[in-house]
Specification:
The protein is an alpha+beta fold. It has helices at 11-22, 37-41, 53-62, 75-81, 91-97, 100-109, 123-133, 157-169, 224-240, 287-290, 295-304, 326-332, 375-391; strands at residues 4-7, 27-31, 45-47, 65-68, 117-120, 137-141, 151-154, 176-180, 184-195, 197-200, 204-209, 212-218, 245-254, 264-266, 269-277, 318-325, 348-353, 364-372. The protein folds into 3 domains: 4-87, Rossmann fold (3-Layer(aba) Sandwich), CATH 3.40.50; 116-180, ATP-grasp fold, A domain (Dna Ligase, domain 1), CATH 3.30.1490; 184-391, 2-Layer Sandwich (D-amino Acid Aminotransferase, Chain A, domain 1), CATH 3.30.470.20. The protein has 13 helices and 18 strands. The strands form 3 sheets. Strands 9, 10, 11, 12, 13, 14, 15, 16, 17 and 18 form a 10-stranded antiparallel β-sheet that branches. The radius of gyration is 21 Å and the shape is globular.
């Protein structure tokens, strides 16, 4: 098996390493944080700043193929690796997905469904374009935004002034994207792997709280035709970007026909690509239990040179993944999470704690998965379990 290098030792890199070990593939991880979960769990982890090119080159020499666990990676390590082992997904895919303007332009160029947008690169351009574009709209910084960071809902002049003030305070360069506001039915995601074959996962239904993913339900509660079309759009997106590796396609399902945006209609609903992530995704944690193989297994197969097959659901019913944020630890006032209430929640089939040393509000510290005959029952079980954890009993 190929020796795989993973840039990033957080929860995504850790779970990917576990999947690679199942294939007997040797793994080396690299992270700048000595407290990263992988450091405590895997002996072959290099800890050094991303700017330490000597350490990065040492890492690269050990590896036959390299991947990364997040798309906001520093460019230094990639430049150092450019003459070394192949990077999967490619640097070209990474550069498109870490820049919202390039991402939207890629979608438009390939005639993939997307919301109407405009790109601005200065405060003056933003003020001018805002009036031309028309209220309301969503304003997003081109780089660095995730979990709702760098995003603003602009309904009029006051919102625009507040957003500009916030961007000034952050010393932003005002490189932003304006997006048409659409009437959402729900948000979904679909994960595609491509290597020796292609794998398209079932459609996930996602619910957010405070811009952070809260719950993921699979299968998504949409008409079969909508699920089919969304998966088809996801695969076409992965093919258009010439993906080798794993790509998460976040999609909007709209209620009404758009005014200016490009959508694909299915069963009276409208499908758009929202954003792309060239890595395992928070919503895909549920695949570890819900599917015959997980998103991590899929990427591990690509990296190790093992053929891909089609993932299937594990039996009937619905699965729900719930995020565990640091707020739960803070509510319990514990350094270690007390899971004693689990005995009263038989529909909770899995709890995964990431091994992060410090709990902070809104920090992703773990997740859990429930299974029930229906999506509503799986969601109710997830909410009940998390409420019990918050109460510490």
């Amino acid at each position: 098996m190929r020796h795989v290098g993973i840039l990033g030792g957080g929860q995504l890199g850790t779970m990917l390493a576990e999947a690679l070990f199942h294939l007997d593939a040797p793994v080396t991880l690299y992270d700048a944080d000595p407290d990263a979960p992988a450091v405590a769990r895997f002996a072959d982890t290099i800890v050094s700043p991303w700017s330490d090119l000597e350490a990065v080159e040492k890492f690269a020499r050990k590896c036959e193929i390299v991947t990364y666990e997040f798309e906001h990676i520093e460019s230094g390590p990639l430049r150092a690796l450019s003459a070394g082992p192949p990077i999967v997904p490619s640097i070209e895919v990474l550069e498109i997905t870490q820049d919202r303007a390039r991402e939207k332009e890629f979608l438009a160029r390939n005639e993939l469904p997307h919301v109407h947008f405009a790109v601005v690169r200065s405060e003056e351009e933003l003020r001018t374009e805002a009036h031309r574009f028309g209220w309301p709209f969503i304003l997003k910084t081109i780089r660095g935004g995730y979990d709702g960071k760098g995003q603003f809902h602009i309904a009029g002049h006051e919102d625009l002034d507040a957003a500009i003030l916030a961007l000034r305070e952050r010393k932003s360069d005002f490189h932003c994207v304006l997006e048409e506001l659409i009437e959402l039915e729900l948000e979904v995601s679909c994960i595609v792997a491509r290597g020796d074959g292609e794998a398209v996962f079932p459609l996930f239904e996602n619910a957010h709280s405070g811009h952070i993913l809260d719950l993921t339900v699979v299968p998504a509660r949409v008409p079969p035709e909508v699920a089919r079309v969304a998966q088809e759009v996801a695969l076409k997106t992965a093919q258009a970007i010439d993906l080798v590796g794993l790509l998460t396609i976040e999609l909007f399902i709209g209620r009404r026909a758009p005014r200016r945006s490009r959508a694909v209609e299915a069963s009276g609903l409208y499908v758009y690509v929202n954003e792309l992530a060239p890595r395992p995704h928070n919503s895909g944690h549920v695949t570890r239990n819900a599917c015959t193989f997980s998103q991590y297994d899929a990427l591990a197969r690509v990296l190790a040179g093992v053929p891909l097959t089609t993932p299937q659901m594990n039996g009937a019913g619905a699965w729900c993944m719930g995020n565990l944020l640091g707020d739960v630890w803070l509510a319990q006032n514990n350094e270690r999470l007390d899971l004693s209430c689990w005995r009263h929640h038989p529909r909770v089939v899995d709890v995964v704690l990431y091994g992060k040393r410090t709990a902070r509000a809104r920090r992703k510290m773990g997740h859990f998965v429930t299974h029930a005959p229906t999506a509503a029952e799986a969601i109710d079980a997830a909410r009940a379990f998390r409420e019990a954890l918050m109460k510490g009993r």
